[in-house]
Amino acid sequence: MLYDTELRFLCDTLQKCHIQTHIIDMSQPLTQRLSQMDIPTQLGDIDGLADLESRLPQVRPGVVYRFRDQLGCHFLYCCLPTAARESLLAIGPYLAESPDSQQILELAEKHGVSPGQLKYLQNYYNSIPVLPNANHLFALVETFAERLWGKNGFTVEDVFSEPYELFLSPEDKKSPAEDTLWYMRSIEQRYAYENELIEAVSKGHSHKADMIYDTFSHLSLEQRSNDPLRNAKNYCIIMNTLLRKAAEQGGVHPMNLDRVSSGFAFRIEQAVSLESVPGIFSEMFHTYCRLVRKNSLKGYSPPVQRAVALIEADLSASLNLRTIAHNLNISSSYLSSLFKKETGQTLTDYIILRRMELARNLLSRTKLQVQTVAQHCGILDVHYFSKLFKKATGMTPKEFRQVNSSN
Asked: Which residues touch 381 (CB under 8 Å, ≥6 apart)?
């Protein structure tokens, strides 16, 4: 086919965004077509198959269809002209927003889904990416359509019926074994999202973590409690632990991780509303990614790793090349040369850099006197501290606090 390259590019790009694509042979029976899309069929009958069979023949070449089904799931689809037969490119499902637990219960009641079958509906939502703004997806599909039919050779139609209804009549239900396999796959997909997030964090790839998180429904938390806020907090605690381990794999020293992890653990427990949880989630991913980028010790030799660990352990201590070399039982000249070679800066410059970072944090987040801030940074002479601080920031400590104070 002339558009093979473009089709592969489109499908590969959408796969990175966790959006499913399927090429459906229109000559196959409806149940087989739905099976290819891995759509759940465990939830009973809503409109039956007759309406679906009557609508599918209406799909026309040169048209990109955008539609939303009864569950609020969005799809895109269009015909793919081939030499032998007509195929359908189906993209989706995706959600514009995630329904909360109450909305899922109301949907289940509306469509006659029994409590015993509710887990299928919940896990179906859990496996669907969330795209609050689908403009980029539309742009990709429209560009592909231009390659198929020319810039002005196609139209876009919105359809709010169910050409791919999620519910089949009872006689078309899968066997219990197939039900179990589908349920397992939906859980596996949720865990795959988590694993990709953890891998991105371990490498400090915040841009990739952002992309994954944007498609990661907050309902991907398994419902372990009847209290939605408690459930969200529990999942946050789990993710905090996993992300801490991911950052440790990325080479961040446990001492740095302990402070961050403890801070998030406190904030999680202090959360008073479900709406505050996604913000904590997002901040956790970004913070642990920054830790990996800034503090990763991977690739450093053991002496340099231990030197950095000693510095990070207590910036208020008396830190200098001779003292650190003595604690490591190596010569000052060897440590100095090795540290500069591996980090690109002298050990003294690194100590000053870390102390000034601490100073900026304390000045902006606390009301400690400048002299006390200097002591926390291991500098007893406040005038020398102010000189170093102005050299690093272009402002005196007082000026910096006036501009950046959060108190």
From this structure: 374
pLDDT of residue 213: 62
- Residues 315, 319: Cα–Cα separation, whole Å: 8
Residue 163 makes CB contacts below 8 A (sequence gap 6+) with 52, 55, 56, 59, 65, 67, 77
Using CA atoms, how far residue 210 sits from 200, 228, 275, in Å, is: 9, 24, 19
Q: How confident is residue 330, by pLDDT bands cut at 50, 70 and 90?
A: very high
Phi-psi region of 307 (alpha: psi -120 to 50; beta: other; left: phi over 0): alpha
Residues near 329 by Cβ (< 8 Å), separated by ≥ 6?
A: none
SS3 76: strand
Each domain of the chain, given as residue ranges in start order, spans 4-172, 186-293, 302-404
Joined tokens for residue 171? 């006689």
Which pLDDT score is estimated for 212? 63
Higher per-residue pLDDT: 243 or 189: 243
State the average pLDDT over residues 15-21.
82
Q: In what order do the strands lie in the sheet with 21-25?
A: 21-25, 86-95, 73-81, 63-68, 155-159
Question: Would you call 80 helix, strand, or coil by DSSP?
Answer: strand
Q: How sure is the predictor about 58, in pLDDT bands with cuts at 50, 70 and 90? A: low
Contact by Cβ (8 Å): 45, 162:
no
Q: How many residues does the chain have?
A: 407
Helices and strands in the chain: count of H runs, count of E runs = 18, 5
Q: What percentage of the chain carries pLDDT values higher than 70?
A: 74
* Burial class of residue 69 (count of CB atoms within 10 Å of its CB; 0-12, 13-18, 19+): buried
Q: What is the pLDDT of residue 168?
A: 33
Calpha distance 405→361 (Å, rounded) = 9
Q: 216 or 275, which is more confident?
A: 275
Lowest mean pLDDT among 31-35, 36-40, 199-203, 355-359: 36-40
Query: 279-284 — which CB contacts under 8 Å span 24+ positions?
Result: 280/236, 281/213, 281/218, 281/236, 281/239, 282/213, 284/236, 284/239, 284/240, 284/243
How far apart, in whole angstroms, are the C-alpha atoms of residue 267 and residue 118? 32
According to the CATH classification, is domain 302-404 in 3.40.1190.20?
A: no
Angle 359-362-365 from CA coordinates, rounded to 5°: 145
Q: What is the pTM of this model?
A: 0.46
Beta bridge partners of 77: 65, 90
* pLDDT score recorded for residue 219: 45
